[in-house]
Specification:
The chain is 35% helix and 13% strand. The chain has 156 residues and is of the alpha/beta class. It has one domain: Aldehyde Dehydrogenase, Chain A, domain 2 (3-Layer(aba) Sandwich). It has a 4-stranded mixed sheet with strand order 1-4-3-2, sandwiched between helices.
Amino acid sequence: MASKFRNAGQTCVCADRFLLHESIEENFLSKFVDKVKQLNVGSGMNKEVTMGPLISTKGANIVHSKVKEAVDEGGECLIGGSLMPGLGANFYEPTLIRNVNRASKLWKAENFGPVAAISTFHTEEEVVETANDTTSGLAAYFCSQNLERVFRVSRR
């Protein structure tokens, strides 16, 4: 949650793309959606707020354009997906989109917004290939209960 939604997803090391093994997808996404529902979007001057605005209206509109494109290409918006004009022009809902087309702008580039692009994988080879298929210098995080796998995959 912190890696994705800190500073409304506007840090270079935010997790933009989530590659989930197909065996954990439903359980992980159920928990992820529940956590996103707990975020409180608004002015940072309010103590209860856990996520503020994007840096600019242009930034919020770019994020919205990428989200719309991803959904138009078959992605499923699990939560969020909209601008929040009631709060101001720079606010965007925390958003999770599954089945994101891996050729979409949302998948291929840094998004600098509160949007998680989600896809699944079946094999270790597939996830390594997919994770490395980017022209951006995206940060990468890898989690597994199998320490041998952690070292093997991190070398690739």
